[in-house]
Each structure stands twice: as structure tokens, then as C-alpha cells.
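# nightly structure sweep
# worker-07 picked up a monomer target from the shared queue
# config: single-sequence mode, recycle default, output format = C-alpha cells
# input follows
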Amino acid sequence: MHYRQLGHSGLRVPALSFGAGTFGGTGPLFSNWGRTDVAEARRLVEICLEAGVTLFDSADVYSDGRSEEVLGAALEGLRDQVLISTKTALPTGDGPQDWGTSRSRLTGAVEAALRRLATDRIDILQLHAFDSFTPVDEILHTIDVLIRSGKVRHWGVSNYPGWALMQLLERADRHGLPKPTVQQVYYSLVGRDFEWDLMPLGSREGVGAMIWSPLGWGRLTGKIRRGQPVPEGSRLHETAGFGPPVDEALLFDVVDALAAVAAETGKTVPQIALNWLLRQPTVSSVIIGARNEDQLRQNLGAVGWELNEDQAHRLTAASMTDAAYPAFPYRRQEGFARLFPPMV
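# output follows
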């Protein structure tokens, strides 16, 4: 497994990390993602460690905290061999302190996550959504206290607008407080909006990217093909409405291109899609998920080899869409990717 710097921090993370959204499996969304119990989770963790995948990502809203509980139990005795990432900010209840990033919410959410994860520290804490009601200084000073206490090691954001992330970075720099080093973002061959604003910001300011849903919310598994219905057992029947929208015409153009490259390389469609992401600027780690050993081993096969330039170019061309203003001027420049060096 290749390891990369997490943004401007000194933390090195594996190119692939494991998402624990399938652990626990409660509620209308997460029960369709997976219902992995502790014994099954332990086996998946062991396979990850054998492959060098040492970073595990969860969130307090995943199965109402059950994901963190299962992950913590599965990591028993292994804590010093792994990195744990988790997220908070989205609503976990109906109370006034059950959502957002206020001092009270962040402090309570971290304490609760530590209990569920059965650990004394969170290696990477991410604010799961932008909270327009909490002042930036309150967020930064709370994070500073959590880091000084040893309960949090590094921090970042997820699903943040670029201007809000830049505000955190600028204010933290001004006051000498810990800056966010990571942004967890949606990015796939059928969802490249990350390139328009957040990627150049990350490159300029040293914020690495952890990628969620790298297979386009389950659409780039190789099971969905042009002219064929969505397979009967696909989780998309129940979960499509929860994820980012995808243009159907673009989807099938991308799938056709992936299938062609897969035939040339002897790799699977998901492996091709994941490998393309690992080539992209500022990407520190791509989060893979799996409901069973077979899925996990297949996704782990995305590393240890590289697409050639022609194959990568064809995938890039098949997935290209027009960027919104004001991003389109630099998106159309020759050698766009060279503007944003990778963090390796």
C-alpha cells in the first residue's frame, strides 16, 4: 500500500481507506448499505491490515452511532496499528444541541464518539456539514482545546463550500490555531464537481482530500450497463434518492469507457474507477466500502498498478462536463491538472 501526506500535516495515510458505513445497519439508508456485525467487521479489518489499509472512517450519524460502536469493537487490541476518522455536525436527534458545530455540540459529540469507539483519541475529526449559525472563532477555539487535550489529533471538514473552508483556514492562520488539513468530498468519474473549486483551494492551501462514494453511489460497480435495467438486488432501488444526482447519459458514457479499459487491462470496472481517482491532484485517500470479503478484496485490487496515459485520458474525456462559472476558464486551460500538484 502506498502512503500519502494528509494535506499540510505530517500525518501519512494509506491511498485506500475503509469506510464503516456498512457497519451496524439501522435505518432506511444504512440498513440497505450493509448490516455488518462485530465478527464480520473484525474479519474485514484484518483483511484491510494485511493489505496495508490502516485508516478507518465512520460518523456519528451512521446507523445512529452503531457504526462507531461496531468499529470500536472490531478494533479491540489493534488501536495502535490504525487511524480512526469520524465525523459530526449532522443531526443525531431532535434537541437543540443535537446538530451543528457549536462548542457544546462538538465537545459532547467527541466525548460520545470516544465512548462508542472505545478509544481515548480520534486521529481525524471532520465537521460533517457547514453550520452557518456557529461563529468561526468558536469552532476554531473548540477544536484547539480538543487537540490540546489529546482527544483529537487532526481535523478537517466534509461537504463544505469553498468559501467557508477558506474562512476557517484564514482565521486559524491569523490566530495561530490548528488549521484543517483534510476535506472529505464526493468525487467520482460521474461526479467531478470537486475539481471546479475545492480541488484548487486544497492545492493552494494544503488541504488533502479523502474521497467518499468513489464509485458514484454504487453506479460504477460494473453491474449497471447501457440498455439494461438496474439489477434487482442493487441497493440503488432504495438509496438512489439519498445520494448525489447523476446524469444518465454521462453515466453510460463513463461505464462504456470503463468497460473498454477493463477489457484491456484485465481489471474490474470498480478497480479502474478507483485507480483513476488515485491519479488526481490533492487526493490523499480514497474511501472504499464493502459488505463482504469478496467486495473488499476486489476494491483492494485498485492499487499496485497504474493506468497508462492513454487509458486515463479516455476516462477523463468520457467523464468531462462543463464547469459552472467562474470555474470554467481554468477548467478549459491546457494542462489543467498541472496547476494542482498531487500530495504524495
